[in-house]
Design brief:
By secondary structure, the protein is mainly α. 57% of the residues lie in helices and 8% in strands. It has 3 domains: 37 residues, no CATH class; 82 residues, no CATH class; 85 residues, no CATH class.
Length: 213
């Protein structure tokens, strides 16, 4: 599918104007999180400095996230994306605290294998281990907490995982999707195409059958 088939409008990209003093008109695409329009180069969301982030900026993990995002010239500051990232970090911290509590409750030293098994068991029910994420959708939306991904997870858990053929499909997906997701995550145009011709039509169909999921 060519780029002309994607939804876009002609206008001035806000980031181009602010960052590069470029007020020329070009194709603009809509950010799926904040709803604002940007050129292809600035379409991907990145962390924005907001009040919710001030208390976390001293955290070394957040320092790395912010530093990585703001070193790249591409992308645009996106508040919904930032809030999703804050939530992701909070959930990771909760998991780590629970793991530490269990380790401290042990009356004997544990082996490294036991530590790994315990670490895996601490993933909350609302979260997924690395092998159970919606890899491609996460690559497209930039966060595993996007509401669209929650719909896909419910479809997986409530429909696909209750059927032998569905389970087979899910297992195949986990096997082949990580390298595909990696490629997609590096290419803004691929994100647009896959979201438009694969993810969005699937979401539209699932929304018609909400009672199932």
């Amino acid at each position: 599918m060519s780029r002309d088939t994607c939804n876009y409008k002609i206008g001035i990209c806000r980031e181009c104007k602010v960052r590069n003093k470029d007020s020329s008109e070009k194709r603009l695409y809509k950010c799926h999180l904040c709803g604002e329009w940007f050129c292809e180069y600035h379409l991907d969301p990145k962390v924005a400095f907001i009040r919710d982030l001030l208390g976390k900026i001293k955290d070394s993990k957040w320092q790395l996230i912010v530093e990585k995002d703001w070193k790249r010239d591409s992308g645009h500051p996106c508040i919904p994306y930032t809030k999703y990232k804050i939530k992701e970090l909070e959930l990771e911290e909760q998991k780590e605290f629970k793991l530490i509590e269990k380790l401290l409750s042990k009356k004997r030293r544990i082996t490294y294998q036991e530590y790994q098994e315990l670490q895996a068991s601490q993933i909350p029910d609302t979260q997924l281990s690395e092998s159970k994420k919606c890899f491609i959708a996460t690559a497209i939306y930039g966060t595993s907490l996007a509401p669209e991904i929650n719909i896909l997870r419910k479809f997986r858990d409530n429909v696909l995982m209750k059927d032998r053929l569905g389970k087979f499909f899910v297992n195949c997906y986990y096997l082949i999707s990580p390298p595909i997701a990696h490629i997609i995550s590096k290419n803004t145009f691929l994100k647009l195409i896959v979201r438009k011709i694969v993810i969005q039509p699937l979401l539209n169909e699932l929304n018609k059958h909400r009672r199932i999921i």
